Amino acid sequence: MIILALDSATKSASVALLDDGEVLLEILVNLNRHHGETLLPAVETLFRMAGRSPEETGLIALTTGPGSFTGLRIGASVVKGLAMTRGIPVAGVSTLAALAANGGPRRGLVCPMLDARKEEVYTGLFRVDDRGEVTEIGKERVTAVEPFLREIGGEVLFIGDGAVRYEALIRSVFTGTALLCPPSGHLVRASSVGLLGLKKFHQSDILNTLTFTPRYLRLSEAEKRIAMEKAEGSPDE
User: Fold this and answer.
1) Which pTM value belongs to this model?
2) Torsion angle of alpha carbons 197, 127, 14, 142, nearest 10°?
3) Which end of the chain is more exposed for a tag (fewer CB within 10 A), N or C?
């Protein structure tokens, strides 16, 4: 089965084409350009270079969050357009799980971190076994960095742009034991999204193409304003 995988949850974007568990081709764009300009052209280039047709696609996998509000919306829109016109099933993959896969098999925990601004990160804890299986430990969250770091211990590998931004803090909390992924490992890879999405497909964990929405983990500024306005306008009990 041909799988189209996409990620647009962070500043970088990537697309990949897989034949079941084999990665055929992957394109990663890290040019700090708007995903609306790069995502669809990358998909078109992907099929052209692979000598494949979009009609051959049996599954689309994408990151559904957490991440950039705008990037996630663009990814969801592109996928819905592709999937609904051709009746292709869609598998949603956690951005953090896809990032954790970069850590490879290891005994300790993998901690992906995405910069959420406001001195916060989107994060969670995962294990990656020798078969590449990614297992979530605990619940993904958006949180202040230092309190979260002081909750965890042991051997932990930190990955992602949040880990890069807060490297000094990580090293101060994990004195002499902090492990950070090499620079190339801090970017989400669509190939990992495809492999994780294939597993979900085999588990019949498929999104409703018409109604699915990204997982933001926190409200947008507009949603916060609406919630505050409703709260201010509600009568006292």
Assistant:
1) 0.91
2) 100
3) C
